[in-house]
Amino acid sequence: MSKYADTTTSVKIRACYNSVPAQLAKENRKFQYKIVQKGGTATIFGESIEWLNFAGTVLKCQKITEGSIPIAVYAYLPDFKLYMSDVGLLALKSRLPAELLVAENNEGNTFMGAFTENYVAQSFTANKIPLFYWKNDNTAEVDFVLQKGMDVIPVEVKRGVNTRSKSMTLFAKHYRCPYSLRISQKNFGLENGIKSVPLYAVFCITN
What gap in Å lies between CA 25 and CA 205, rounded to an integer? Predict the structure, then answer.
């Protein structure tokens, strides 16, 4: 960062980058500039975010306000989530113990949910799937929204076997989606319009 940016800008870039684990640890994972620095704003840090994004160091997941074709035109630019470009980097920056990562009973750890989301975002990016998420004016939120041809597909990511997806069901019904995707530890399956994909097979999901 210091090699390709001037001193003042590189300080801001590193501050944004270092804040990503803390951003993901929040219940509301929308990027907040105040987490980077008290009183932080888009004016101060917006350029640094774009630097990281174009460098491929972070993955930017843009909020959309509607689940209609084409979803990209409904992007609400001020709201977005940032993921690390690699879960190994996230584990390193967050000092995530390897024992927790492989533990069978880590479903109750809230950060593991964020870690799993990051893994899915990384996999989607590798398959050239643009990253979007949806949130309404209340509390409903869908982790990812895909556009496959003429179809809009909501995606929920679950770390464990607890797979209740109220927000995804709400989205699918409202926008008349042909089906939904649930990524979790459950095996492949189809029930009530929800296709289950196990975490190990996320690479199978393509545009």
Answer: 26
Q: Residue 77 corresponds to which amino acid? A: L
Residues 6+ apart with CB under 8 A from 163: 156, 182, 184, 186, 196
84 in a structural domain: yes
CB atoms near residue 27 (< 10 Å): 7
Structure tokens at 155: 């995606």
Specify if 4 maps to a domain.
no
Residue-number span of the structural domain to which 119 is assigned: 57-204
Instruction: Check pLDDT > 70 for residue 162.
Output: no
Joined tokens for residue 59: 């993955």
Number of domains in the chain: 1
Sheet strands (E) in the chain: 58-64, 75-84, 132-135, 141-142, 144-148, 151-157, 180-184, 189-191, 194-198
Write down the pTM of the prediction: 0.92
User: Looking at residue 129, what DSSP letter applies?
Assistant: P
